[in-house]
Design brief:
about 475 residues, alpha+beta, paralog of FGE (formylglycine-generating enzyme), 8-stranded antiparallel beta sheet, 4-stranded mixed beta sheet, about 20% strand, elongated
């Protein structure tokens, strides 16, 4: 017996139509809905609001896990998620500008065209009310890293697999009767509230999510109360999907940063010049990411101690406690206490490199926007970055409030302080090694959690460090050359 723990059946129109069938041994007569589902072409972007809430929640859980592409069996009005079948790839959430979509479904053809999965269950309500009104508020979606895959790349129990779920739209929706929609419009026009009217009187038949909570959020997850699953996009196995955009030129978790003419402001790296387009990591390299390179026997272990010339025993003991690699709870903190050659080796192992200081400053300034700070022109405060606030020095910190971190913070903890294209921690948290310099000293940029001086958090901030030095407030990020389109 198949249960929700082994498979996720979203809409079985044929079984819904045949619930009252008697086992007489005779071939059953096909109902109109069954006949329609038998010949309907599987649509590549079906609305999924009629699937049971528990099933849609299970699908959302799989999407958010992000460790595989969801594989389905999809034919006509029937879809089944094959939970034990795996396809390589992952999903990533991206917000969009809030959008409203409204549809009036006045006959069965429109119903099956818009909501093929579960349409059979809505036919009776359509006939009863004369029309159904579907309103969707869209705030973002999950998109896979794979446009299509050949069948031989699937693993697990994949019998009957036909499609991959390429993307998933989220937000909020309301499905109501046409009469109910008209009643709501009239009530709003006259200023009348819903009061004690029942859901049936108001015309609401189905809903999920709260449109009032649907604002344009960040690119991490949909807003609370506005994450209902609305529509899937599927692609057939073994067939290339028509690309909606050119092939992605940058690795995952990076952004393509345009090049341009760098003009020195007089307090920066000291020269102007042309900067080529770059793929930029959106956050500093984390402890977990660096450990992965060590596990592959490519990178050397991140040190558990700091080191620099003339360091005292007290400094070594105090600052080494801040080295993140030996702390279990700091997987998502920036890897620190690494020498320049370790940072350089890691980036090269990923197919990238350390940025030059000209490239680093171009990124921090937001390119041709010439931002004073990565986030803009507001002076540093505890909302924007991890530097030396009240938690560090009550008398002379950079800002009077505590930012909550006496040492490093998890990467991208200060979303209001992101730079252009949501690049995190370009100021504060840890200074970052660059490729510029020589064997005696290398340029570092961006300031760290101990920075007290406003100048150290500006996009133009620079300092130098001996390549062998290892500091708790010094880490790095990588850049890549975009691939050809």
């Amino acid at each position: 017996m198949r249960t929700a723990a082994t498979s996720l059946v979203f809409a079985l129109a044929a079984s819904a139509c045949g619930r009252d069938r008697l086992d007489t041994g005779l071939a059953p007569l096909a109902t109109p809905s069954q006949a329609r589902c038998g010949v309907i072409k599987s649509r590549d972007r079906p609305v999924i609001i009629e699937w049971p809430s528990a099933d849609r929640a299970n699908l959302e859980q799989q999407i958010r896990r992000g460790d595989k592409i969801v594989v389905v069996r999809y034919e006509g009005c029937e879809m089944e998620v094959l939970r034990d079948c795996a396809a390589p790839g992952a999903y990533r959430y991206a917000a969009v500008q809030r959008k409203e979509e409204s549809s009036s479904l006045k006959d069965e053809d429109e119903l099956y065209a818009k909501i093929p999965l579960g349409a059979a269950q809505l036919v009776g309500e359509l006939k009863s009310h004369g029309a159904l009104e579907l309103t969707m508020t869209i705030v973002g979606g999950y998109e896979s890293s794979s446009a299509s895959l050949p069948r031989h790349q699937l693993t697990g129990a994949c019998e009957g697999a036909t499609h991959l779920v390429r993307s998933l739209t989220v937000g909020a929706f309301t499905l109501s009767s046409g009469r109910g929609a008209e009643a709501r419009v009239g009530a709003e026009a006259w200023g009348a509230g819903a009061g004690g009217r029942t859901a049936r009187e108001r015309g609401a038949l189905r809903s999920d999510g709260d449109p009032r909570s649907c604002h344009s959020g960040d690119d991490d997850a949909p807003p609370d109360q506005c994450g209902a699953l609305l529509r899937l996009e599927v692609v057939p196995l073994g067939e290339a999907a028509a690309p909606r955009r050119r092939a992605r030129p940058c690795p995952p978790d990076t952004v393509e940063f345009p090049g341009g003419q760098f003009v020195d402001s007089g307090d920066g790296w000291g020269a102007g010049g042309e900067v080529a387009p770059l793929c930029v990591a959106q956050h500093e390299v984390t402890v977990a990411e660096y450990r992965g390179c060590v596990g592959d026997s490519i990178c050397s272990e991140a040190p558990s101690t700091v080191s620099w010339p003339s360091i005292t025993d007290a400094e070594r003991s105090r600052e080494s406690e801040r080295c993140n690699a030996t702390h279990r709870g700091r997987r998502d903190h920036p890897v620190n206490c690494v020498a320049w050659n370790q940072a350089d080796a890691y980036c090269r192992a990923q197919g990238g490199r350390l940025p030059t200081e000209a490239e680093w400053e171009w990124i921090a300034r937001g390119g041709d926007q010439s931002r004073t700070y990565p986030w803009g022109e507001d002076h540093p405060d505890a909302r924007l970055l991890n530097a030396c606030g009240k938690e560090c020095d009550k008398a002379s910190g950079l800002y009077p409030r505590s930012d909550g971190h006496r040492s490093t913070a998890p990467v991208d903890s200060f979303k209001k302080g992101r730079g252009r294209w949501r690049i995190a921690d370009l100021a504060g948290n840890v200074w970052e090694w660059t490729a510029s310099g020589d064997d005696s000293e290398r340029v570092i940029r961006g300031g760290g959690f101990d920075s007290k001086d406003d100048a150290q958090t500006r996009s133009s901030s620079r300092a130098t460090q001996a390549p062998r030095d290892r500091r708790a407030d010094l880490g790095f990020r990588c850049v890549w050359t975009p691939s050809a389109p």
